[in-house]
Amino acid sequence: MGPDVPLLNEYKQEFFWKRFPQTLLGGPRFKLGYCAPPYVYVNQAVLFLTPWLFGGVGTLLCQLQLLQELYAAVLSGMLMFAAAAGVQALAVYAARRGGTVVERLGAASILVDEEEVEFTHCVSPETVRFIAPGKRFGLNVVLHTVLAGVLCGFGTWYVFLGRLTALYGSTGVSLVVFVLSWVTLCIAEYSLIVNTAAETATFQAQDTYEITPLTRPLYIFIFIAVDLANRFSHAVPELQPASQALHVVFVFLPLLWALGVLPPLDALLLWGMEQALVFGLGGSPMSSNIRYMLLSMFAVSFGVAVCNYFIPSTLGVVLFSTSAGFLLSLDLSQVGTLCRRQRLVFRDHRFHGGGSPPVPLTSFGWTLGCRELLLYLSLLVAATAEAGLLHHFLGAVQSRDLVTGPQGPVSYLLLILFSLCWALREVQGAYVVGGMFLNPLYPKGLSNVQSFKQKNRGLHVAAAIRRVLLYLVSPFAMVAFLSMDKSLRSLHSASVSVGLTRAFRGVWQSSEDALLQMVVVVIVQLAAGDKTLPGWDTLGTGVQLLLVGLLMDRLTQFLAKLKFTLTVLVTSWTEKKQRRQSAGTLLALNAALWPLVLAVVTLSALLSAPLLPLFTLPIFLVGFPRPQRSWPGPVGTACPCPDSVFYQQMSGSLASALRTAFASGSLGYSGSHLLDISCVRFVVNCCCINTLNLKEYGVSSLLQGLELQETSCHTVEARRVDEVFEAAFERPERLGFTQGFNLHWGNALTPCAALAVRVYSDARNVLSGIIDSHDNLRKLQEDFMKALIWLLLRYCVQRHKGLLWSSEVGSGIGGMKSQSSQLAQTTCNQPSEAVVVESNVSSLRFRQDSSSLTSFGDWSDEDDLFGPQPARRTVALVTAEAQPGHSALQIGASLPGSVEMDSLFENMALSALQPLQPLGLGIGMPAVDKGRNPEVLRESPHLNFSCPQSEVFNLPPGWRTAPLLPSRLLLLRPLFPEDWFRFSLGRFGLAVQGETSEDTTKALKEDDVLKDLHVKVALSCLISVGAESAFTSPSYIYRLYCGDVPWTEGLDWLSSSKELYQLTLQAFRFSFKLLFDQASLGPMESPEELFSTLEEYERDWYIGLVTEKGWHDSVVQEKPFLFSLGHDLTMGTYTGRVLSLQEQLVQVGRLNGEGVRGQWANLSWELLYATNDDEERYSIQAHPFMLRNLTVQAADPPLGYPIYSSAPLHFPCL
User: Fold this and answer.
1) Bigger pLDDT: 673 or 820?
2) Whose CA is closest to 163, among 57, 60, 69, 51?
3) Which end of the chain has the smaller Cβ count within 10 Å, N or C?
C-alpha cells in the first residue's frame, strides 16, 4: 500500500463528521444523513438550552436581590429536576408505546446511527426515542434525574455573576466566563439526562452500566468542590488563585472532552489508585484482575500507612513498617503452590501425559515451597532484627550532617553498591549507555549455542555477583539507612507515615529502583553538607524518596515520549513509504508550534498518559490517563489458531531463559512502575513480553505470540527487526567509534541479549522426484509390510507387559488419543461413524462441515494428471451411515441420477472386484451368504502353537476374520517378508523373555502357526488399504497417508477394529517416512538398522498430519521430531514438513514502551470512536522504525489479534 492510503474511507469520513459534533455538544444530533422535520432540531435545541433558562431565572432573581444566592440555586435545581423527570417520563412512555426495549448505551451497532427515522409529529414515540432514548436501568432513571437537578443548582451557584466579578474584578471578563460556563453546563446536562454522545476517551468497548453519562458531570462537581472549599475555608490562601484558574479551565472543558484528554470514570479510578499505590505506597501496577486486586492491594497498603500513623512508639513503627513492607512485596499468587502440587504457576499450560514441564519443579523460586518459605522467613527475621537493633541503639544519636551521623557509613556503602550494580548490569546487555554504544564485552557471533554459552561464562559470574549485591546486600543496607533516619522522630504526621511506608516497602518491592532513589537523596545531602536546604530537609527522608521516585518516573517518561515524537516526525519525511502529501505541511506546523508540541509531550509525561499520534501521523494529542496495562479486560486473551501451540511449547523454555535475563539485568533497568515491552525474535516468528509488575525477587510478565504466517506488512517489519538484531549480535569484531555506535538507535527496538531456548525448527521440502519415483513407489509396498509386521509384534509385547499401546506406540500416529486410557474408553464407546474420524481429516470432517451445494468432491472427475484427487466418500463411511442406531452423516449430495462408481472403486482393477456385496444399504441387491462360501477361511479362536512363548504374540480373534478368499491371500504370500518377521520376532522375544536360550528363540521362529497368523493379518490389511499392487499414484499415497482410504473389499472389516486400523495407518506412515529418509540418506543396509529406525520413529517421532490433535499434543509434550505430508494446491506439489526440537539462540530486545502505549492509544481511539476497522488503513501499515503493524497485533483483543497470550508469568530473579 502507498503512503497516501486514506486515513478514513468515504463512509467512515461521513460517519465521523456526524459523530464528532455530537460529541462536542454532548449529544444533540444536528447533522443527519437524511432530511428531518425542523421540529426535530428545534426540540433538541430547546432541551439543550433548558438548563441555561432555569439557571438564568435563578441568576436574574439573585441579581435583582429578590432571592439570596442559595435559594436561587435551589430554585434552579428544582426546576431542572422537574424538567429532567418530564424528559425521562416521556422516554419511558415512548418506549412502552412503541413496544421497544431501550438499547444498552454504547453497545448499539454503528448501523443504528444510520437508520432513517420516520417522524410523524413533534412528540410522537419515534421522535421522543430519537431525541431521548432513555435509560436501560430504572435505578439510573432516578439517579440521573436527581443528579441533573443537583448539577444545575450547584452550577448556577458556581457561575453567579457576583461571584465571578469578585474573583476577577472585571464585569466584562465575568460576562464572558458566565456565558461560556453555561455552555459547559448545558453540554453536561444534555449528556446526563437527554442523550449521551460517544466519547473520544473510551476505555471500555461497551458501557454496560451506563457510566458514560456521569463522566462530564463528575468533572464539573470537582470544579465546584474546589470553589466551595475556597468559599468556606479561609485557612488555605492558595485556594483563591486555584479557583480563579479553574474557572478559566472550566470554559475549555468541552474542548478537553472532545479531544479525549479527560479519562472516563472507570479509567480515572483505576489510574488514580495505581498512581497512589505505586508512588504513594511503594507498590507496583497490578498485573491481573485490576478491578478487584488493585482495589484490595490499595486498601491493604493504605491500611499499613494508617497503622503507622497511630502507632505511638518509633520502634514499633520501624518493626511494623519493615515486616509489612516485606510481606506486601511478596508474590502472593504463589500461595496456591505451598504443598508443591504437581503443577506450574502457568495457568494456561495444561500438559498431557508424557510431556515434560517447561520448568523443573525443583528449580528455586518457581513455586512457593519449603525452601522458599525458609528463605523468606530468614530474611524477614534478619531484616526486622537489624532494623530494631539499629534504631534502638543508634536512632536517637544526634548529628548535624549526614557524614558525622550514624547514617554516614551506610550512605557511602549505598553509593558503592549502586556503582557496582550499575556497572555489572551495563555489561550484561548488547548495548551500553542507554543503547547508544555496543558492548565490547558481549559475545559476538551467535552461530553456535555451545560457543555462545562458553563465551558468556564471564558475564554469568558478573551476573551472580550482581544478584547477591542487589537482592541480598542492598536491601539490608537500605533498611539500616531508614531505621536510623532522623525523620522517625517526627511521627504522627501523615506525610511522614506515608513516606516511611513507601520507603520500607520499596526496599523489597523494587530493590534497584529504591537503591537509585536512595542514592540520589544521599548525594543531595552530601552536596548540601552543613547547609540547610529550605523546604527539603523538613520533608523527611520518606517524602524525599517519594518525590525523587515521582520525578525520575516523569523524567523517564518525558525522554521516552520525546524520542517517540522525534521518530514519528523524522520518519514521516525520511521514509518514502511513509511520506504523505501532507508531510511537509505537518512538519512545518510542528516546527512553527514546537513550544506547543513540547508542552503536549510534557503534559502527557506529567499525567503519565500516553502520547497519542493521531492516525500515527505527526499530530500529537494527550491521551487520557489510564492504567499502565492500557486495557480494561483480564490478561491472557488471544485469538488462537493452530500455530498457537508452538508458543505454548516454547513458553516454558523461554520463561526459564527470561528468568536468567531478568536476574542478570541484561534486559536493562526496569523501574517499579514502567511499562516494559520486549520483543523476542525467533527464526520465523516473534513474540512480545509485557512486563506488568515487580515483586520481591521476581517479575510478572505477559507472553504474547504473534502470527507465524507473515503478511507483506509483517515481512517488512520482521526484516527490519532482523537487521537491528544482526547489527548487535552478528557483526564481527568492532573497532572505532563509528563501528561501535548503534546505527539503529532511533528505532523503537533496542537489542538486549541472546537467550538459548528450546524451539522447533521448521524444514519444508518439495517431494518432487521422491513421491513420484516408480522405484520408490515399488519399495513403499515392501516397507509397508515390514513396518506393519514390526508394529503388530510390538503391540503384542506391549499388551503382554501390561502397557497400554497408545501411550507409546500411538504417539506416532495422527488422530490417536494422547493417553492410553482415552483409547481404551473410545475403543468400546465410540460410534461406528467415528471409524475414520480420528485419522481421516480430509473426508469425514470435511463433509460434516461443508454443505451439499459447495462440496463437489463426490462427483469430480479430477485425477492426478491435473492435481490431487479430492477427498471421496468411502464405503467405510457409507457403511457407518447404514448401521442401525447411528445418525446419518452430513455429506454432500451428488448430482441427481449419477452413480458414484469412481469414489467407490478408486484405483482398483476391475478384475480384483468381487460381485457386489450387501452393504446394508437396502438397494435391492441379491443377498450373498458369506457363511456358505467354501473358500472363506474360518478358524477357531484357539490356535495350537508349537512353542509355548508364541502365545505372547497371538493376535486378537477379530483380526483373523477378514472376508477374503484364501486363494487370494495365497497369491500374495510372496509379499510377506519372512526373514524380517523372524528377525523382528527374535528381537521382540528377547524383550519379552529377557535372557532366553537359543532353543527358545529358534522355536519361536519355527512356529508355523504363529507365522501363518501374522501372514494372514498382514496380507489382509494390505488388501484392505488397496496396496496389494505397487503404488502408482502420488495422489493415492497422499490420500492413504491422510487416512482417506478408498473403498476396498476388506475396508469394512479393517475399520471395524479400531486398533488394527490405527496400526495399519501408522505402518503406512512409517513406510512413507522410510521412503523419505532412504531417498535422502540412502537405503537401509541391514535389518538391524531398519529395526533401530522403526524404534526411533516410535520413540522420538510423531508422523501424521498438522491438523490432527496428536500433532498438537506432541508439540506441547516436546516430541523431538515431527513429520507431516502436505500438498500445495497452488503449485501442485507435495511437501514434507519436518519439525526438529533443538536449542537455538533467540534475540531479545526492548521496545520503546511509550511508543507502544501511544500507538495503542491511537488504536483504541481509531477503532472504538472513529470505528475505522479497515484492514488496509494507514495506521496499520508497516513502519520499519515504529514497528506499527507488530505493535497493533500485540494489543489485547478485540483491538489486537495475538494468536497466543499467557497468564501472568512470575519469573524468580534470585
Assistant:
1) 673
2) 69
3) N
